[in-house]
Amino acid sequence: MTTIRAVDVVGGPEVIGAPLDSARAIIAAVRRGFPVAAVEHVIASGRMTLAEIDEVVLPRKTLSHRRKIGTLTSEQSDRLVRAARVIAEAEETFGSQEKAGRWLRRPTEALGGEKPIALLDTSEGAAEVETLLGRIAHGIAA
């Protein structure tokens, strides 16, 4: 379900250009490559800054090149949807985009003093953040 909500973080079917109502549809869209507009939507919505996109999804210079092409690669799309999934889970856990954003950007002792958003550049890092969000959501001491 979080993956479906992640679609909204990247702009939904309107931005992606395809119905994204199932995990299979999302997988197919990632494999095709998301439009660059998905990155633009994440930035415009305030969910990630350009600097965070640079660290987690793709370097600025590459983003500039991908803007000319119009689409991301499947790997870049996968990193974007991974970050979007964690952002969506944080928003659900904390009840608002603003509170989730603050938590994602605050160093957290449970993650070795790192900012949760900084760990989204790897699947293992994202899994650690998702585990912590699950503990918080269920009232288990983080």
Q: Secondary-structure blueprint of this entry?
A:
Layout: H1 2-9, H2 12-16, H3 23-32, H4 37-44, H5 50-56, H6 60-69, H7 74-94, H8 97-105, H9 123-137
Helix pairs in contact: 1-7, 3-7, 7-8, 7-9
Explain what the structure shows.
The chain is mainly alpha-helical. It has one domain (2-137). Helices cover 65% and strands 0% of the residues. It is built from nine helices and no strands. The chain has helices spanning 2-9, 12-16, 23-32, 37-44, 50-56, 60-69, 74-94, 97-105, 123-137. This is Antitoxin Xre/MbcA/ParS toxin-binding domain-containing protein. Residues 90-139 form the Antitoxin Xre/MbcA/ParS-like toxin-binding domain.
H/E series, N to C?
HHHHHHHHH
What proportion of the residues form beta strands (DSSP E)?
under 5%
Global geometry: globular
Low-confidence stretches: none
Compute the CA-based radius of gyration: 14 Å
Organism: Bosea rubneri
Domain Antitoxin Xre-like helix-turn-helix: 26-85
Pfam families: Xre-like-HTH, Xre_MbcA_ParS_C
InterPro entries: Antitox_Xre, Xre-like_HTH, Xre/MbcA/ParS-like_toxin-bd
Characterize this entry briefly.
The chain has 142 residues and is an all-alpha fold. It has helices at residues 2-9, 12-16, 23-32, 37-44, 50-56, 60-69, 74-94, 97-105, 123-137.
